[in-house]
């Protein structure tokens, strides 16, 4: 599904140039659940953002489902993204002015799903995430775990082929965190590819494979059994 | 999708009530001001443009050299009409107009009404539709009269006026032959009725065939297809070929230029009302822009709060275009709310604005065009104010935003600074202008008039006043109402007559020197409280030869070059006039111009007005009561009409007063809207820096220190705006003052006080928020970490 080769990303400020990704190559197959680990600042989020087409690499190749997209412009990437990728963030990133239902509905609106279909599909995922009873609440009225479940609901409502999660349990206590991990595992079992960044060895154990990064390079891959 | 935007917009508006209120209030005030001005502009631009034949309608004008300059004026000889009709086949119709003022009597109802004498062609040349009657024939008979609907109502109430008889003065009976729709609010014509020209000739008792007497307006309608240039070439010599006046060119001024382009300089059109129209349009545009700038500034200042939303929307699939349309939709929605509010403001303030501008503007609620224009205006405002924020916000990169390190404030600071400087530059220019206009006004008002205006009253000599003048004068004095009475040719505040026909010994005969002409039967200096510099007042009782005596003012003595003015002979045509006295210069016409040379002629001349100085020993009310009794006694059919000279004199400042009031209004509005924006910006700045302030306070910063740190940035912008505004304002006001010969010098203090006013207002605006932020307990602001 994903194949990156010699991917590079630099950040330039006035004085220093940081190499966030240094000729990084890796591959993720359809249906895999991959965890990315590494010390703070090693480039995990940068990688995830590039994989999610929120950012573009400075060099290297990125083939997504057989298409080279490293050179795509913003509009094309946005188009590809909204049909294929769902995001889950550490800080949930829900829109405060929208209710649970409306937050989850948002991706469907942008992909042009009809209003009746939207209601059906949103209710379906909310049900699955066991958050249906909170459908008319605003994000501030929910606990962290509930917010993250809403965020996951929003990530999957469009039935994306790939879910990118950046420390999805980072802001949660262990029981809420485990619940989230169970949800991700379920999704993966139903066929969604998942790439997750995490600092927790415990969470990483839910994945099939762990990719360890150091200074923007892969240093080790563990296959889970 | 649209519903979703609407929802977010609505919740955003409600959630940030302060921001919303500032935004909507600012926009509404800006839109209302712009709309009022645009109403005014629309009215000015449409003046007399509703005449169906406007492209063929012209006013006849004269052009000649006086005092070395080419002058143009729009009054013509009365005989010009017949010549135009007979000898110029390109001219289809011609009508003259001149003022009529008669006492109307119906039963025991007496009313003095102002109308026009005109020729029958008038009704078919111009598009003043008749409600009743036939435009082709309504003025054919000498004793026909056309009333406007309002006049008809005044005279006959709800009765049908057609065919009714009206007694005019005490002499003639007129028949109503037509009723005209009331004049619109955008025409130069102003009459309550129309009367045939032939009646003027009857009351004048002769047909004026003098080509040198330019006293009426002549309007011409050209045949279709005839060009202005072609006819101008031919009418140029019309006066020359009919008289021995050899130095007057005649030309035609087209209806499309009557109102906006009527200022001539050296024989050429140099503008006119169009300048005010342009200036006002620019001001309207700027006020609207300033209101929009508020919106832009506040929206971008709040961008940190919106950034997250933008980032998330992009992550879940929003394209840049859809975000742009979302934000534009938001600003259009705010603009819509503001627009509705603005409409209310306009409706409420229209009477005051009308009063101020001397207009009769109204909101055309029933017109679809109006509503369409409203809608486009609202959308325009929404797009104008929303486009920059929309582009700015939609360009956020989700990676940066969602990482939480996002600092939008700094990224946007430069354009926002530019916008604040723009706002304040405009506000300061207006403040400086206001101060200078007011100073000029005061300067002119304080100018010595040269005579004593207080307790001086005049009455027009209507009906039998002229006949009974000697008796009236006597009784005014003996009854104790007045201490001095003088019969004059015109009110003391108006120059009604002037001539270049005087000659004297030593005059350069090649030079045309124009003099104001004023007539008095005597007691002139006593009644007016004038200072006699040399010689004496005219007094025909004491000196019978004084019927041909004249007084000169100082300006006349100077241009005539008399070393010893008393006893000099001044000839007016063949009449020899003797100078018996010289009076100190006094202001007859413009208080902004030097006093013009003036010749005051004795009893053997013409008179229109009686001036009388009220008795200072009595109250004004008692004096007026006595005077009324006297006038009623000798002129019983006419209502007693009187005018105080000081009131009339004050009217000379009306234009400047209006300019002053408008300038302060605009200045007030812009500074208000600008400060509203500044206040909003300061609020957000204080909120954004609340943590920084907390840390600083923990480290020992004082409230004063924090306040000044926060205010300094904004004051710097205001100071910068001042630097740009000063030369601009100086330039504008310098050119404005060039229009006045008697003008106030622009002093440095004007700028200093403008700077002070602006600084104080902005300090108050900004420091309110700064102090509030500085006073916040740091424990509170740091806890949220
Ligand atoms: N916008 C930026 N400007 C400059 N440097 C950046 C920027 N974003 C990231 N970096 C740098 O790039 C490197 C990789 O950052 P990245 O956020 O990918 O780290 P990370 O592995 O996600 O760290 P963490 O585990 O703390 O989230 C870091 O050294 C970081 O300082
Ligand atoms: Mg990270």
UniProtKB/TrEMBL annotation, chain A:
GO cellular component, as recorded: membrane protein complex; plasma membrane
Record keywords: ATP-binding, Nucleotide-binding, Transport
UniProt-listed Gene3D superfamilies: P-loop containing nucleotide triphosphate hydrolases
Which GO molecular function annotations are given, in alphabetical order?
ATP binding; ATP hydrolysis activity; transmembrane transporter activity
The residues covered by the ABC transporter domain are 2-225
What Pfam families does this protein's entry cite? Answer: ABC_tran
PROSITE patterns, sorted: ABC_TRANSPORTER_1, ABC_TRANSPORTER_2
What InterPro entries is this protein classified in?
A: AAA+_ATPase, ABC_transporter-like_ATP-bd, ABC_transporter-like_CS, ABC_transpr_LolD-like, MacB-like_ATP-bd, P-loop_NTPase
Assigned protein family: Belongs to the ABC transporter superfamily. Macrolide exporter (TC 3.A.1.122) family.
Record's PANTHER family?
ABC TRANSPORTER ATP-BINDING PROTEIN YTRE, IMPORT ATP-BINDING PROTEIN
Record protein name field:
Phosphonate ABC transporter ATP-binding protein
Organism field:
Mucilaginibacter pedocola
Automatic annotation (TrEMBL), chain B:
Any idea where this protein resides? Cell membrane
Q: What is this protein called?
A: ABC transporter permease
Q: List the source organism.
A: Mucilaginibacter pedocola
Q: Name one Pfam family in it.
A: MacB_PCD
Which PANTHER family does the entry mention? ABC-TYPE MACROLIDE FAMILY EXPORT SYSTEM PERMEASE COMPONENT 2, MEMBRANE COMPONENT OF TRANSPORTER-RELATED
Q: Which UniProt keywords apply?
A: Cell membrane, Membrane, Transmembrane, Transmembrane helix
Q: Which domain of life is it from?
A: Bacteria
One cellular-component annotation, GO: plasma membrane
> Where are the membrane-spanning stretches?
21-41, 279-298, 327-350, 370-396, 417-437, 662-686, 714-734, 746-771
Keyword hit for Protein biosynthesis: no
Question: What one GO molecular function would you report for this record?
Answer: transmembrane transporter activity
Annotated MacB-like periplasmic core domain ranges read: 20-237
Predominant location of this chain? membrane
């Amino acid at each position: 599904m994903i194949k990156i080769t010699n991917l590079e990303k630099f950040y330039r400020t006035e004085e220093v140039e940081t190499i966030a990704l240094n000729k990084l190559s890796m591959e993720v197959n359809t249906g895999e659940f991959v965890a990315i680990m590494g010390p703070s600042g090693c480039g995990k989020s940068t990688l995830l953002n590039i994989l999610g087409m929120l950012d573009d690499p400075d060099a290297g190749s990125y083939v997504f489902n057989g298409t080279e997209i490293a050179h795509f412009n913003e509009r094309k990437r946005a188009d590809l993204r909204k049909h294929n990728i769902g995001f889950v963030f550490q800080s949930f990133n829900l829109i405060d002015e929208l209710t649970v239902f409306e937050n989850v509905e948002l991706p469907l609106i942008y992909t042009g799903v009809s209003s009746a279909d939207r209601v059906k599909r949103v209710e379906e995922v909310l049900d699955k995430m066991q958050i249906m009873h909170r459908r008319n609440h605003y994000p501030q009225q929910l606990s962290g775990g509930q917010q993250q479940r809403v965020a996951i609901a929003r990530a999957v409502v469009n039935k994306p082929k790939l879910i990118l999660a950046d420390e999805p349990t980072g802001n949660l206590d262990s029981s809420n965190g485990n619940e989230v991990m169970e949800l991700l595992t379920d999704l993966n079992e139903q066929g969604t590819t998942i790439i997750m960044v995490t600092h927790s060895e415990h969470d990483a154990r839910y994945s099939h494979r762990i990719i360890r990064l150091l200074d923007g390079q892969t240093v080790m891959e563990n296959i889970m059994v | 999708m649209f519903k979703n935007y609407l929802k977010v917009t609505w919740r955003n508006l409600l959630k940030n009530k302060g921001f919303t209120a500032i935004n909507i209030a600012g926009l509404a005030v800006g839109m209302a001001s712009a709309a009022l001005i645009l109403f005014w502009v629309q009215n000015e631009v449409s003046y007399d443009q509703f005449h169906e034949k406007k492209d063929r309608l012209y006013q006849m004008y004269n052009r000649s050299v006086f005092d070395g300059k080419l002058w143009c004026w729009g009054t013509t000889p009365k005989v010009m009409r017949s010549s135009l009709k007979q000898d110029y086949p390109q001219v289809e119709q011609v009508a003259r107009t001149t003022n009529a003022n008669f006492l109307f009597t119906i039963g025991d109802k007496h009313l003095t009404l102002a109308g026009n004498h005109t020729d029958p062609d008038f009704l078919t040349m111009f598009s003043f539709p008749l409600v009743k009657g036939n435009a082709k024939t309504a003025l054919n008979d000498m004793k026909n009269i056309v009333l406007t609907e309002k006049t008809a109502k005044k005279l006959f109430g709800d009765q049908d006026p057609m065919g009714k008889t009206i007694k005019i003065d005490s002499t003639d009976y007129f028949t109503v032959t037509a009723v005209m729709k009331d004049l619109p609010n955008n025409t130069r014509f102003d009459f309550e009725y129309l009367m045939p020209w032939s009646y003027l000739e009857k009351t004048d008792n002769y047909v004026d065939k003098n080509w040198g007497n330019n006293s009426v307006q002549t309007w011409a309608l050209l045949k279709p297809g005839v060009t202005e240039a072609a006819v101008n070439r031919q009418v140029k010599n019309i006066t020359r070929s009919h008289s021995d006046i050899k130095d007057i060119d005649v030309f035609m001024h087209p209806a499309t230029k009557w109102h906006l382009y009527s200022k001539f300089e050296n024989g050429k059109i140099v503008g006119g009302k169009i300048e005010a129209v342009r200036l006002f349009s620019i001001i309207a545009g700027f006020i609207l822009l300033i209101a929009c700038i508020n919106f832009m500034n506040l929206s971008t200042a709040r961008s940190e709060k919106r950034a997250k939303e933008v980032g998330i929307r992009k992550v879940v699939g929003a394209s840049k275009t859809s975000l742009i349309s979302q934000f534009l939709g938001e600003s259009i929605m705010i603009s819509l709310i503001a627009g509705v509010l603005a409409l209310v403001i306009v409706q409420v303030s229209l009477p005051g604005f009308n009063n101020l501008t001397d207009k009769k503007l109204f909101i055309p609620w029933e017109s679809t065009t109006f509503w369409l224009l409203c809608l486009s205006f609202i959308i325009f405002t929404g797009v104008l104010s929303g486009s920059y924020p929309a582009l700015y916000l939609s360009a956020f990169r989700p990676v940066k935003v969602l990482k939480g390190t996002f600092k939008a404030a700094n990224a946007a600071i430069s354009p926002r600074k530019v916008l604040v400087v723009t706002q304040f530059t405009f506000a300061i220019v207006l403040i400086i202008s206001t101060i200078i206009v007011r100073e000029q006004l005061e300067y002119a008002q304080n100018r010595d008039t040269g005579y004593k205006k207080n307790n001086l009253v005049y009455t027009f000599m209507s009906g039998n006043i002229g006949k009974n003048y000697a008796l009236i004068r006597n009784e005014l004095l003996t009854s104790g109402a007045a201490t001095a009475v003088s019969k004059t040719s015109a009110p003391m505040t108006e120059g009604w007559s002037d001539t270049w026909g005087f000659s004297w010994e030593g005059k350069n005969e090649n030079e045309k020197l124009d003099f104001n002409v004023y007539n008095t039967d005597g007691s002139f200096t006593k009644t007016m409280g004038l200072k006699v510099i040399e010689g004496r007042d005219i007094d025909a009782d004491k000196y019978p030869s004084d019927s041909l005596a004249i007084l000169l003012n100082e300006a006349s003595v100077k241009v005539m070059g008399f070393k010893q003015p008393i006893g000099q002979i001044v000839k007016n045509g063949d009449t020899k006039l003797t100078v018996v006295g010289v009076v100190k210069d006094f202001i007859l016409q413009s208080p902004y111009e030097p006093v013009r040379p003036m010749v005051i002629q004795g009893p053997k001349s013409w008179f229109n007005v009686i001036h009388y100085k009220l008795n200072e020993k009595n109250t004004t009310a008692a004096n007026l009561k006595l005077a009324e009794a006297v006038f009623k006694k000798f002129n019983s059919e006419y209502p007693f009409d009187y005018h105080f000279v000081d009131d009339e004199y004050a009217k000379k400042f009306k234009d400047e007063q209006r300019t002053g009031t408008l300038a302060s209004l605009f200045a007030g509005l812009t500074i208000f809207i600008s400060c509203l924006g500044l206040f909003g910006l300061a609020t957000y700045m204080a909120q954004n820096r609340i943590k920084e302030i907390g840390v600083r306070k923990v480290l020992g910063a004082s409230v004063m220190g924090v306040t000044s740190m926060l205010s300094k940035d904004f004051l710097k912008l205001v100071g910068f705006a001042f630097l740009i505004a000063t030369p601009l304002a100086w330039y504008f006001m310098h050119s404005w003052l060039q229009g006045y010969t008697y003008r106030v010098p622009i002093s440095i203090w004007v700028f200093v006080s403008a700077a002070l006013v602006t600084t104080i207002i902005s300090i108050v605006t900004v420091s309110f928020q700064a102090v509030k932020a500085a006073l916040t307990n740091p424990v509170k602001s740091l806890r949220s970490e």
